Amino acid sequence: MKNMNKEFLDSEREFLDLEHKYMILVPLNEDGLEELYQYNIYKDGKISENMKAMSFYEDTYSYMEDRLFDFINLVCGSLINMYEEEVIENNQLEKVLDITNKLIHNNDDEHFVEFAKEFKSMIELAIEKKTVVGFYF
Fold first, then answer.
1. What's the chain's Rg over C-alpha atoms?
2. How many CB atoms within 10 Å of residue 87?
3. Angstrom distance (rounded) from CA 72 to CA 19
4. What is the pLDDT of residues 63-98, one digit of tens each?
5. Is the CB of residue 133 less than 8 Å from the CB of residue 87?
6. Closest among 58, 93, 81 to 135, alpha carbons compared
7. Which of the chain's termini has less CB crowding within 10 Å, N or C?
8. pTM
9. In the 8-state DSSP scheme, what is residue 91?
């Protein structure tokens, strides 16, 4: 019998875990950078005040994987992948912003564009704060 918290995906991964939360994090200061690199992002059960977080679930990750994350991986040599943590360093963020802008402008899928614009704002924040973008999957 099918688990009510999972959705059939494909032949490689039989089910999506609809309760698994994914986060993209931008440290807002040096304390946030330290917390990110030490995997210490929670304070009193909440995301640290030194972070800006964008959260979503596995179905969104699965949808965005080959539409956005794989392009970033290819250009930046990163490994944004399910159940992995990855950090895009500040010196790579302009490349990620360029890729994201191109994908937004060449896409008419509203779901994709909405997600990509929110992701773009996270990149811009990291550039402004001179920090990084962390993928906490």
1. 15
2. 19
3. 25
4. 999 999 999 999 999 999 887 899 999 999 999 999
5. yes
6. 81
7. N
8. 0.85
9. G
Determine the Cα angle at 86 with ends 123 and 121, to 5°: 15
Q: Which residues contact 57 (CB under 8 A, 6 or more apart)?
A: 18, 19, 20, 21, 22
Cβ neighbour number for residue 14 with a 10 Å cutoff: 10
Nearest of 30, 16, 9, 24 to residue 72 by alpha carbon: 24
Neighbouring residues of 14: CB distance < 8 A, sequence distance ≥ 6: 8
Cα 78 to Cα 28: distance, rounded to the nearest angstrom? 22
d(CA 109, CA 111): 6
Give the up-direction half-sphere exposure of residue 64: CA atoms within 13 A in the CB hemisphere. 28
Place of tokens 């191109």: 102
pLDDT at 6: 46
Q: How far apart are CA 49 and CA 42, in angstroms?
A: 9
Amino acid letter, residue 48: S
